[in-house]
Amino acid sequence: MYESNLVVEVDEKILAPLSELSDIGGVIGEMVALNTGLEVGFQSAGFMFAPDLTQIASLKPSVFRLERRLVSEFSLCQFVSSAPLKTKQHMDVLERLEKLF
User: Fold this and answer.
1) Global confidence as pTM
2) Fewer beta carbons under 10 A from the terminal one: N or C of the chain?
3) Residues linked to residue 8 through DSSP beta bridges, in sequence order
4) Phi-psi region of 32 (alpha: psi -120 to 50; beta: other; left: phi over 0)
């Protein structure tokens, strides 16, 4: 079984499919402000693809994740990605995702 972990810089548009969820980020921000007094904006920070592990009897592949690198400014477009793939295959998937948007 393979697992590849990469830190990458990609086009911000890679999260475009999640833009319809931006209202939820606003709601979360409002609730955090209500609870803590902190005015914090929330945005989509990534996504993942997972197999149904209950349907796999043998070795179980990890999930594919693409998430913002939370220790850097969002404007830098740095992401952490994990995949149950060889590194070259992982990079190919990321390039295909970036080209989609």
Assistant:
1) 0.84
2) N
3) 79
4) alpha
